[in-house]
Prior knowledge:
The protein is mostly helical and 146 residues long. 76% of the residues lie in helices and 0% in strands. It has one domain.
Amino acid sequence: MGAASRVIRFIFIAGFVEGTCAHAYDLACGGLHAYRGFPLVSQVFFHLLLLIDPLAAALAWRRIPAAPLLGPAIVLADNAANWQGNWPSVRADPGLLLRPYGLSMITLFGLFVLVTAAPLRRSCLAGRDAARAAPAAAPATAPSES
Length: 146
């Protein structure tokens, strides 16, 4: 795994761990109704992210090739739900998108995951194939003479 693949994987994992922490914080502060301003489907999805985000991070940590497939699905749904719920606020004050947190960061991370999904998957597959080939390539030991 090259340096670029390691950086991509690190950002992928860090982003999904941060997402997990953000949703856990929202739940701790606001309870089950932390997202009451959002449609019910989005509210349920945001609570499900407490399970799905760490799953994506764990799969990437273990270099399981499903992580780069799950990641884009998560960020597409998360971005759609966040943009839908925040659209009235953005229309009222477009400056909200200039903040270095919230919707702008969710969108940037989503773009990052979408752009890097294919290289990350190739890296995970190459690492898996190399791990499988390693035992077969191990040199045989000579029998001991007695």
